[in-house]
Amino acid sequence: MKPLKFLLPAIILVAAIAAGVKKHDAPLDPNELSATVYAQPQTLPSFNLLDDNQKPFTEKNLKDHWSLIFFGFSHCPGLCPTTLSQLNTIYQQLPENKLPHVVFITIDPERDNPQRLHDYLPQFNSDFIGVTGNEKDLDKLKNFMGVLVMAPSGKDVEGHYDIDHSGAIMLINPKGQLHALFTTPHNTDVIAREIMLLEEHARS
Hints:
By secondary structure, this protein is α+β, with helices and mostly antiparallel strands. It is 26% helix and 24% strand. It has a single domain (15-203), classed as Glutaredoxin (3-Layer(aba) Sandwich). The chain has an eight-stranded mixed β-sheet, sandwiched between helices. Strands 1-2 form a two-stranded antiparallel ribbon.
């Protein structure tokens, strides 16, 4: 599966990061950032979903810590397992005191019930959180974050179907706001470094 290109609803933060984030005691060149950073972080809409332990998952679950969100589905043959593996690599590179919550939100609630996600995600990382639920709130969230999803063209003789979708990783700040996003292709070393830089800048 190939990730789709899509227009980003973000405003790239340049001056603030250049003034406030440092790398090895030298000003960060904003041209080095792979992330698209919002000049004004965007407050998420309210939603009511379920995590893979069948517990309520709302916008409140994204507060008081940093989070990385990726939208996909468990039957995805390429983009999703690749990105989840990359998220695990990023997770392993971050210091323990700066570990974000990693949240996988399905775009295929028909097949991805909580148990399916609970069985699927540990092959990448047992700390990852799966989220599913009603299509209305899932659509609200993915549309807000600019996730492009193409409806399945049809099912094969066994009833299987594929879904083309974009592959951005979203960074949510401790206020529960969309802070930045990383579009494909993903460089795990760069993303891990920039997450730490953006967290440092947000605290300054």
